[in-house]
């Protein structure tokens, strides 16, 4: 007989905590997996001292699960939250009262793409910096949970603190308040979560973070049209989305899908950005259209949405991204292009 997660949780619910409640009501079970008859889970204690006192409870939890029919082996591991509550691994989204939008945030702006690697995170970081330079209070939420790149792009290596164990204090860099799951986990650690856990992480990064008063919260979405994009657009009040694409056909096909997804989710598309539009040889000055030419402009015209910017392939953009100093901090033509984009959003009353 195949054991179910519900059977296990029901059994664990019977184990009372000395402080009242039980392992389930206190939300202490993480990463519950069942493979054949082998059950594994983590009991997360609120502090290392409490974890030490909970050893008898861990053994009792193993015993009670081992007694269930269909269970051939059990491994329960005790961990303690460090100082921070962090984003509890394996946490699902909790029922959300009202809109998933932090109280002090005026505008939520989503940056999406169909295909990966087209420069969505680069655009998000530089637009955030450019808006901050224009005097706006800016937050950046890195919702690319499987491939977070904002800590690197902002040069952030610290882990956000949580003095009260409930709310996370986000990090600041280059005038922008930044929150990324990449700041909560080791850089090489893979996140292998699906739907409900991705939604839980998004909810926590939105609602369990002290964003403070912000004119705009930019959300750097994962590529594609998956759970995070859907969850954000359905549960948060997204003022608009910007879709980044290269002029390449394979990117454009996916960009079209992203546009279609935003339309289905009734999120207004503010416009398209063509990234890596052209490469100008620094030696001979000749332009090469490495990823094709004009495709994004044509697409924007076809869809009736503005083409917000055409950004060239630029070495300093790549170096700035890798080095934690976004190119928009400087005064190069690229920085000016981002300043112009920020200005356009401000003048358009979006931010
Ligand atoms: N205009 C540009 N010129 C040169 N390099 C760029 C440009 N835009 C982005 N890049 C570089 O391309 C790489 C991919 O960019 P980025 O991570 O922003 O893409 P993405 O669409 O967010 O990718 P992912 O789907 O993995 O999140 C990075 O190394 C970045 O520095």
UniProtKB/TrEMBL annotation:
Alphabetized SUPFAM superfamilies for the sequence: Fe-S cluster assembly (FSCA) domain-like, P-loop containing nucleoside triphosphate hydrolases
Family matches, as InterPro entries: FSCA_dom_sf, MIP18-like, Mrp-like_CS, Mrp/NBP35_ATP-bd, NUBPL-like, P-loop_NTPase, YlxH/NBP35
Residues noted as binding ATP in the record, renumbered to the chain: 114-121
MIP18 family-like domain location: 5-75
UniProt keywords, alphabetically: ATP-binding, Hydrolase, Iron, Iron-sulfur, Metal-binding, Nucleotide-binding
GO MF annotations in UniProt: 4 iron, 4 sulfur cluster binding; ATP binding; ATP hydrolysis activity; ATP-dependent FeS chaperone activity; metal ion binding
GO biological process terms on file: iron-sulfur cluster assembly
Role noted for this protein: Binds and transfers iron-sulfur (Fe-S) clusters to target apoproteins. Can hydrolyze ATP.
PANTHER family: IRON-SULFUR PROTEIN NUBPL
Family stated for the protein in its record: Belongs to the Mrp/NBP35 ATP-binding proteins family. In the C-terminal section; belongs to the Mrp/NBP35 ATP-binding proteins family.
Record-given protein name: Iron-sulfur cluster carrier protein
Organism: Tropicibacter naphthalenivorans
Lineage: Bacteria, Pseudomonadati, Pseudomonadota, Alphaproteobacteria, Rhodobacterales
